[in-house]
């Protein structure tokens, strides 16, 4: 078969896989693993567009999920998880500093891995990196560690949750605290149940707001004055979506019709987009990226992940 024909077939197969992921027949973990296996055996026909598409689809799908949530319930869950969030972020960042020194790792690398574990994975690393003036290698290694563990979490956490008999609320809280990226938090929680999804999304996005104070603190600790700090703007749109879903039904017949038909449809489409996003995330994970991570950063990431997972689970269950 000619190279051009093979490339065309791979592109068609990739697009068909994306369409399949948008159906109810493919779960989040299967989409992630499927994306990785597709790229491993057939290559990625749209590698240059993958990161940009993933970034956009994740934010759009998260905002859309807001149309399936109530602001009053979200505020209650957010208050409940506030102190656990503060405690876990503080513990992870301090532990990253201690273990990073023990492993004799560069301070910036250990701080980036700690920030990604403590807050919201790659988004936190992307925000903190310019604040500490991190090098491209430090950023790529940190992202590699978080991305690998984040992918494993999507598969492991629902299994452990069922094994331990966690309630929907407990699992939602636990996944929001202990899983790195928003994509895998939402993916794991959606596989566990609707209530888990709502709890996890609310707590995780509230947690993501800690990017701002942690970035400011990082700039101070690393003496990086005048560095740009990224603000996760899509969280604001998520809140607006929840407000619309909560209060528009009070505006009359139009609002009632919107809440009964349009809002649930947007939420369902957003869940499908999230599964597509996870396929793209899996497709972006290559063996070369896994090998480039290195031993010490990976061990640090695993240690931080295990500690925050166990401590947060104990706090939630008890």
Automatic annotation (TrEMBL):
Q: What keyword terms does UniProt attach to this protein?
A: Cell membrane, Membrane, Transmembrane, Transmembrane helix
- Entry's Pfam families? Cons_hypoth698
| Bilayer topology annotation | Multi-pass membrane protein
Keyword Cell membrane listed: yes
One GO cellular component term, please give it.
Answer: plasma membrane
Q: Where is this gene product found?
A: Cell membrane
Membrane-crossing residue ranges in chain numbering: 12-44, 81-100, 112-132, 144-164, 234-263, 269-287, 299-317
InterPro entries recorded for this chain? UPF0324_pro
**Family recorded in the similarity comment:** Belongs to the UPF0324 family.
Q: Write down what this protein is called.
A: Sulfate exporter family transporter
